[in-house]
Amino acid sequence: MRWWSLANFVSNAGTWMQLTVQNLLVLQITGSAAATGLSMSVQAAPGLLMSLVGGAAVDRWPRKLTASASQALLGAIAFTTAVLVATGGLDLTVLMVLAGLTGVVATVDGPACALLGNDLVPPEDVPSAIGVGSLVHSAGRLTGAALGGITVGFLGTAAAYAANGFSFLFVAAVIPFLRPALGALRQAGAGDPSVAPAPSGPAPVGEDMTVRQGLAYFMRRPRLMALAGVTGVSAVFGRNYTLTLAVLVTGPLAGSAGSFGTVSTVLAVGGVIGAVLGARLRRPSVRLVGILAATGALLQVVAGLSPSFAVLLVLVLPMAVAESVSDTAGTTVLQTDPPAHLRGRVLGVWGSISTAWGLGGPPALGLLMELAGARGALVSGGLIVAGSIGAGLLLRRRGGTTPVLLPTRERDVTGQPALGTAA
Q1: What would the pLDDT profile of 94-105 be if each residue is shown by its tens digit?
Q2: CA geometry: angle at 103 spanning 193 and 46, to 5°?
Q3: pTM for the model
């Protein structure tokens, strides 16, 4: 797990280094901010539909082999881009094609690497492993963004892409030496050919490995649907702080770009603290995810009413902590709720849903800001999030639990509680 965390840190740093310079590269080629946004959408768009197929591939193929192959492919794309940049052969069309290919490979790489990391610890330590992963991601993001600017300044754009290529190859080189924890043998059967899966391990290739099976499981699990609702409303109205807080700081609070940089740093620190706290959760529930998300939304409302920059800084830290713990708890629920042989496909469904939020959220929030301003968007968005979650909790309390019919491995049907005590 230590080696895997180190590899993930290196890979995340390289990825964020590339993302940082990619926007600058598009601006250099086109001089258009719209083209920059288009390149980001092209890279994200494959996740809308291809995530379902990618999740099925993760359940069908050996997990370690899948993760190694996807990392190697991502490295090849990064090296290709570096060569084209260095030789002057990169134009906007080629860059868009490479961005799209990156997005396609990522639909397999994301769930494969997430589930592979969970195999390295006993089942009871999976929440902590997810928290460590969130912490590593935050640290890699900060490091990569900083290194991106330094690398471009001293070595050029091509060097940043090459560095990301090497980071992917480093991960691919580490994966063959990983061994699953003894308590995780059931999950590891599909990821390590050297380990014989337990009888309840991954299903054999056949009807049970279809994309439809994972989608049906997700739709029939009220706690996963509730998690999707909480995360979706939060993503659209409560998490796009690079837009809302940037406008608030530089507009009504009369701050500078450096002031927003300070806010971004505080948000990142809060995210790291939240990841550490989230790693201590053993059996988080959807209810806890919702309560923490609503708490962060209410803090967002108060932040929108901040009379000064200093007050905003005081509010931003606990807001980021609450939302980071909520994200970590939600990821734990998502990755531990399905049976082992369905987890890749459930993560694939989640990838499609989250891509839809990512593509639709910023335009919706931008329209809200046009109508209500930065303060109004923060206040109304936070109230929408908190109100929606509160209404859902009230309906859940009044409705009680109902049985949900889920197919078992033997294709007969067993009644399962819809939410149960965990939710």
Answers
A1: 988 998 999 999
A2: 105
A3: 0.80
